[in-house]
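Action item from last week, closing it out:
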Amino acid sequence: MALRKGYGLDNSQHCFRKLKVLELICVPGKADALPYCFIRSLLALETLVLHDASFYQIFQSDGLNDEERHASVLTRLSKLRLSKLPELTHIWQEEFRAAFCNLRILEAEECGKFKTLVPSLASFENLTTLEVSRCHGIFNLIACSEAKSLILLERLSITDCKMIEEIIACEGEEIKGGIVFIKLKYLQLSCLPSLVSFSLGDHNFEFPALEKVILRKCPKMKNFCQGDLSTPKLERVQFTEDEDEDEKRGRWDGNLKTTIQQLFKEMNIQNSEVVEVNLQLPNLE
C-alpha cells in the first residue's frame, strides 16, 4: 500500500496491523520523524519505502520512556528503501537498533545530508544487500566494528557519492583479526571521485566468495586496502555491468590490489601526458 500526499499517518495507525508493504510518498509538510505510535502498530510490516519527505531520521526517542525506547518494533521488516530524503541525517537512533534486527535489504538514494549510514553498535547480521547512491554527505560508509557483523552480506553497491573517501572506516578502532565478508559475491564502486581506498585502516580483508567487482570512475583510488587481501574466486575487475558477455574485457594483474594499483598508475601517466601535450600546444592566435 502506498500513502501519498495528503494522507494522515496518525489517523491510520490502527488500520495497518496486518500490513506487509508500505510506501510513504510525498509526505506533506515538515516532520522530524515518523510517529512512534504509528511505527509500533506495524506488527507485520516486511517492506518500508520512504520517498520524497523531510524526515531527518526514521523515528526518534524524544518523549519516550525507557521501556518504549528499548521495545522491539518492525521485527519482521526485511527491506528498507529510502529515496529523495534531503534532510535525512541518519536512519535511527541507537535506542532503536532492535527495530531492524531482521533487515535483509537496505537501499538509500538521494539522501544528501547522510553523514553516517548506521549508528555505532548497530547490528546487520541478516543484511544481504546494501546499495547507496547519490548520498553526497557520506565520507565513509560503515565502521570496522559494524563491518564485522555483515556475515550474510552478498551484494554491496556504492555509486555516485561525491564525498566518500573510504568504504570501511577503522580509524581509532582496535580490531582483533581480519575482517571477513564471508558471503559477499558482488561489489560495485562507481562514480566516486573522492574515494581513496576501500579501507585506509591497517587491517586484513578476506572475501572468500567474491566473484564480481565493478570499478568505474574512481580516479583517486590508489589501493584497495593497506593490509593483506584475499579474493580466491575473483578473476578480473570489470569496468561495466555488461562485461559478463565478453570474458576478454576487464582487467587483471594477478590480484585485486595489484590491479587497482596499476590502474591508478596508468591513469596518472595518461593524465600527465595530456597535461604535457596541452602545455606544448602552440598559440595559434
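Closing note: The two ends are 66 Å apart (CA to CA).
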